[in-house]
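sry for the spam today, last one i promise. C-alpha cells for design, 52 residues
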C-alpha cells in the first residue's frame, strides 16, 4: 500500500492514499501547499540501493 501513498513526482509518502486520477500529490499537481504533518519526513536523500 506504500505505492498508493507515495507521490510519483516528489517522492514524499503521505499518511493517506493519493488520487489515482491525479497520479501525484496536490502540491505537484497544481502548486497548492500541503501540510507538513500530512506526510512522512524524509530521513535521507534517496540513493540507489543496488547490490554490488
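last one done:
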Amino acid at each position: 500500500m506504500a505505492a498508493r501513498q507515495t507521490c510519483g513526482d516528489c517522492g514524499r509518502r503521505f499518511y493517506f492514499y493519493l488520487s489515482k486520477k491525479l497520479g501525484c500529490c496536490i502540491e505537484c499537481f497544481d502548486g497548492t501547499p500541503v501540510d507538513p504533518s500530512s506526510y512522512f519526513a524524509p530521513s535521507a536523500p534517496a540513493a540507489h540501493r543496488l547490490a554490488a
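The CA atoms of residues 4 and 20 lie 8 Å apart. ok im logging off now
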